[in-house]
Write a structure and sequence with these properties.
There is one protein chain. The protein has three domains: about 90 residues, Ribosomal Protein S5, domain 2; about 40 residues; about 140 residues, Butyryl-CoA Dehydrogenase, subunit A, domain 3. It is α+β, with helices and mostly antiparallel strands and about 300 residues long. The strands form two sheets. A four-stranded mixed sheet has the order 1-2-4-3, with helices on one face. A two-stranded antiparallel ribbon has the order 5-6. The protein is about 60% helix and about 15% strand. The relative contact order is 0.14. Helix 1 packs parallel to helix 4.
Length: about 300
Amino acid sequence: MSLQSMTGFARHLRNSAGAQISWEIKSVNGKGLDVRFRLPAGFEAVEQKARAVFSQHFKRGNFQAALSVDRSAGDARALINEPLLQELARIAAQLRADFGLAQSTPEGLMALRGVLQAPQDVLTEEDQAEVEAAVLAALDETLVQLARNRESEGKALGDILSTQIDAVERLTGEARRDPSRTLDAVRSRLAAQVALLLDASPALDEARLHMEAAFLATKADIQEELDRLDMHVAAARTLLRDGNGVGRKLDFLTQEFNREANTLCSKANAASITSIGLDLKAVVDQLREQIQNLE
């Protein structure tokens, strides 16, 4: 399966059941699956089934889904509520007689709420069920299109993530090969530290100082952090190859990357290692930021 970004957009039209049905859907990143609908009057009952359709296609993301249904494209006709129109005309005539108001026009009466009934307001139960089924079918088609768009963005995002993971591997290798970690460099550093302490206080036991310095040097060794960074790099590449639905796992892995980078900086006993650690933290921050957009 391929990687999928949580950012995307899709618009789809479908002429079915005597209506023109249009879905417009936008998605951005989110911790879970959150869908907000904007539905026309009379289609509120569609929402629950529409949420089930979303869950079949996506696991994460914040979605805004807008539906429009235009039955004027079909055979349905708008109807006039004649009893209401007659009553309003009677009231208008009475007001004109009592208060001398201007004569009402047909256009003015037709514009009053409830006089002109839209086609969806006069659908039979069978017609409404047919339109709702077409609405859900159109939604499924729109989500397929949205998934393709998100996969296209996911591919580009995957290329960026691969480049950043390569940078983590490169910096880990630089730290591993840093001259400050050679045996001669460690010995020289230990000797200098012991000599400095003996100059400050000649009464100190030189052998004990050597033991303490060696112990501190062992605690400052970053080999374990480097090994774990290599393992995390391999795990991240495996997840990228696995594809869809790995965003949470990669997000957790960036926390591990960051932990090792912090430890490397705290243990560093050379400016060169500190510099590498800081560069590593910067790359990990960029990696985490990009992964937030991955499903």
